[in-house]
Each structure stands twice: as C-alpha cells, then as structure tokens.
Amino acid sequence: MIIIHPGPGLDSGIFFPWFERLARSYRVIAIDLPGHGRSQTGSPASWSIKNFAARVTEFVVDLGLEGYVILGHSFGSFVALQHVVDFPGHPRGVVVSCGVAHVDALAEQAPLGLSALAPEARELVERAWEVEVRTEADALAMWQGQMNLLVREIGGTAHRLLDDALRQVVFQPDIIRHDDFGEYDVREQLADVLIPSLVVTGRDDHMVTPTMAQEVAGRLPHSSFAVIERAGHFPFAEQPGAYFDALTGWLESMHDTR
Predict the structure, then answer these.
(1) Of 128, 135, 10, nearest to 73 (Cα)?
(2) For residues 19 and 67, which has the higher predicted lDDT (pLDDT)?
(3) Can you tell me the distance from the alpha carbon of 66 to that of 59, in angstroms, rounded to the nearest whole number?
(4) 93: domain range?
(5) Is 119 inside any structural domain?
(6) Residue 258 pLDDT exceeds 80
(7) Of 251, 241, 246, nearest to 226 (Cα)?
(8) Distance CA 141, CA 225 (A)
(9) pLDDT, tens digit (0-9, with 9 covering 90-100), for 40-65
(10) From 249's CA, which of 47, 196, 199, 208 has a CA 20 to 30 Å away?
(11) Is 175 a member of any domain?
C-alpha cells in the first residue's frame, strides 16, 4: 500500500505511529510529495495535483511495483484519485480517506465547518489561516491552530498524538505559501475507475462531511463506504480501531474476490 499524506505542507510522518498496525500485515510505503518533507523541492511550476500524480507513477515504475493499493488522505486523496484516473491499470485499488473529487468542494465547505465551531475555537483557526508562513516554526503554528477545525476533541489523546506527529514533520514553508495546485476535478472520470475503492470519513468531519464523501463513493462503480463514528478529519488517529477495521476488512475482501 502506498500512502499519500495530507497537506499541503505536511509529510508522511503524520501517518505514524497509527499506520504501523497496517504494516504488520502489509508492505506500507509512505511517500513525501515533491516540495514536501524530505523530498526535493523542485520547481514551483511543477507543484500541481496532476504533476504530483505523475510523479507517483514514476515512483511506482522505478520500483517495479505491481498489484498495489493507493491511499490518499485529505489533500493526498486528490493525488490518489488523479493517479488512478490518469494511469489506469497501475493500482489494484484506491482508498479515499477524508477526500473529495473536486477542490471547490473544500472551498465551499470550509466556511460552513468554521461556523460550526465555538467562538474561541473559530478565532484560533482564523488566526492560524492568517499566519504568514516564512519559517518551519510558522508552519507548525499554522497547523496547530487549524487542529480546532480538524479534530473532534481538542486536548484529547488523538489531539496530543497528532501534535507530537506535527512536531516531527519536516516543513517546507514554500509549499504552504503556494496557492495554485492547478485544476482538480475528477468527478466525471470516476465512472471509468473500475478497480475496488473504499471511501472513508469521520462522522464529525467539518471539512469532508459524510454527505460529501458519499458523493465521491456514488461516482465510483465498485466502491465501499465507511463513516467512522466519533471522529473528525483525522479518523485514523481519533478512532484507530474502527478506521483500521474498515480498512483491513476492505483489503481482505479484495483478497477474497481475486
């Protein structure tokens, strides 16, 4: 399984320690997209969803990977879906974790999600969005401030563990300031994605609501759909038992139907 991190600005370290439980049974390859984490910066002109998807394919071909499943979380799901649309025949399956099929969906939902927060939490998120990210410390502060929108329980175990993971992220501030990742809208092409797919989101996700996630699942011909209760935008951290039960159950069903 290839896993693609959320962002922009985060790296694959944000998946751990949670995805270690998947690595007990599957080979898990966590990559940092260009301009993120420990990957080379490259040219900002190449920082687009379409080019990120192409680089994933180059990575797959270089390593000679076959029969893999690709999982993208949030921003990473854009890259995962673009990859399966542009390069049919490469992956065996795709997991859309808290993701959408067109970028405007998030732009439309963000104000609604923000309005659902308590005033103090909303102010922290708005302040985080106003940070001018010039340093790694700025990037960390921005992501920490956004957690009020992204996790269900501030101060809970999942929030504390995510904060620890954020402190391990290698931030590249330029990618966070980058505001044009090209057009992203794969809604019409999803009907041609004939591999098994799993769409999963949190019941209390303010960014990708269950209704939004279900719309993606409805466009994928061979989809399964899972809503993780008592979880926000990081269900693998907030409810790891339920999240990985859904994921491994779906993976096992793929083996059963081969």
Answers:
(1) 10
(2) 19
(3) 12
(4) 2-106+181-256
(5) no
(6) no
(7) 246
(8) 34
(9) 888 898 999 999 999 999 999 999 99
(10) 208
(11) no
What single-letter amino acid sits at 162?
A: L
**Average confidence score pLDDT of the chain:** 93
* pLDDT-based confidence at residue 109 (cuts at 50, 70, 90): confident
For the chain, the distance separating the N- and C-terminal CA atoms, rounded to the nearest angstrom, is 17
Measure the CA–CA gap between 258 and 254, rounded to whole angstroms.
6
* Residue 219 domain flag: yes
CA–CA distance, 206 with 233 (Å, rounded to integer): 7
Alpha helix segments (H runs only) across the chain: 49-63, 75-86, 104-115, 119-129, 136-150, 157-168, 173-177, 210-219, 235-238, 240-256
What tens digit of pLDDT does each residue of 5-30 get? 999 999 999 999 999 999 989 999 99
13 domain-assigned: yes
- The contacts of residue 145 (CB under 8 Å, 6+ apart) are 124, 125, 127, 128, 129, 131
Q: How many domains does the chain have?
A: 1
- Tell me how far apart the alpha carbons of residues 142 and 162 are, in angstroms, rounded to a whole number: 14
Here the CATH number for the domain that contains residue 67 is 3.40.50.1820
Q: How far apart are CA 80 and CA 52, in angstroms?
A: 9
CB 5 within 8 A of CB 33: yes
Structure tokens at 54: 């192409």
Contact 31, 12 (CB under 8 A): yes
- Any residues with CB less than 8 A from the CB of 64 and at least 6 apart, and which? none
Match 């959408």 to its residue by tokens.
100
Note if the bond before 8 is cis, omega within 30 degrees.
yes
